[in-house]
Amino acid sequence: MRRLSCAVALLALIGVSSGCYHHHLRAKGDRVNSSYFRKTLNSSSQGKRSDFVVPPSLNNAQSNAGLASSADCQGNGLYEVGITSYWKYAAGTVFSLGQWSRVKVEWLCAKQPPVIGPRGLGQQPPAPVEATAPAVPTASVAPQPRKIKLDDFTKRTVHAFFWGALQQNLLAPVPSATSKSPATCRSMRQVKLPVNYGFSLITVVTAGIWSPMRVAWQCTEDPAGGSNAQSPTLPGAILPFSPHQVALRPPALSPGPSILSSKEEKHVPR
Fold it and tell me: For residue 116, what is the enclosing H or E element?
C-alpha cells in the first residue's frame, strides 16, 4: 500500500512539473510574418475583464520579428494564434478564487488578399452619350456593406489529456463548412480566451490529466469588391443592338436616262 501511494505521488509530481498545454487556432489564409509575436497575459493587465484578448494591447507587445507596427494585425487580421497554459497557472486561478490568472499567447498576422479585377483600375470618366441614342432608364442599386457584429464570436471548448501528451488544435482541414473552426475564416479579427474557474478546477483536481479550455474567435469581413464591384464603363462603348431602333427604308434611286421608248413610258404606272 505504501508503494502504491508513493507511485501515485511520484506520478502526480511528474504531471505537475511537466503539465504544459498547447492549443493552436489557424485560419485558411496565409501568414505575412514568419516569427511569432509573443506575450504573457495576466489578470492584472486585463483589469476587470473576464477574458483575455488576442491580439493584446500594442503598448506592451513583445516581438521577436521586429514588426512592432503589425503586432495588432488591424488591417488584415490574425492567421494563427497559439495558447500555452500550465498546471500551475490553473492552480493559481483556483487558489486565488479567480482573482489571478495567466496564459501565454503567440500570434501571426494574416496576409491581405490581392486586389483582382476592376477594383484596382481606379475611377473612370463617364462614357460620352450620343444625342441620337435614346436614354434607357435603369434602376441601379448600390451594394450595401455588410455590418460586422462586434459580439459575433464562435465559441468552442478544446481539451488536453495526460499532461499535454494529447492536445486538441483547430486547424485545417475541417469536416464541413459549418463546423466550428477558424479554418473556415479568411483570417481572424480577434480571439478571446474566457477565464473559466470550473475548467481550472478540473485541471487541478485531475492533476493535469484532463485540462479543458474555452476559446472564441471572430472572422474578419471579406474585402469589399470582387463580385460586388462594378466594371468601369469604357469610353465609346457600343450600345446594344435592338431591331426596333432600325427603320428599314428603300434605297433612293437617282433619276437617270430612260431606256424605254416613248410608247412604253406612257404605260408605265407612276
Answer: none
**Element at 263 (helix H, strand E):** helix 262-266
Grid cell 491580439 in the structure block, residue: 55
Dig out the grid coordinates for 47 from the structure: 483589469
Alpha-carbon distance of 218 to 189, in angstroms, equals 6
Residue 8 has phi, psi (to 5 degrees) of: -65, -40
CB 193 within 8 A of CB 153: no
Q: Which amino acid would we find at residue 36?
A: Y
Q: What is the mean pLDDT of each run of 10 residues along the chain (270 residues)?
A: 75 64 91 89 66 78 55 88 93 90 92 62 54 52 47 87 90 81 90 91 92 93 50 46 52 54 54
Report d(CA 261, CA 249) in Å as an integer.
Answer: 30
* pTM score, whole prediction: 0.62
CB-based contact 105:89 (threshold 8 Å):
no
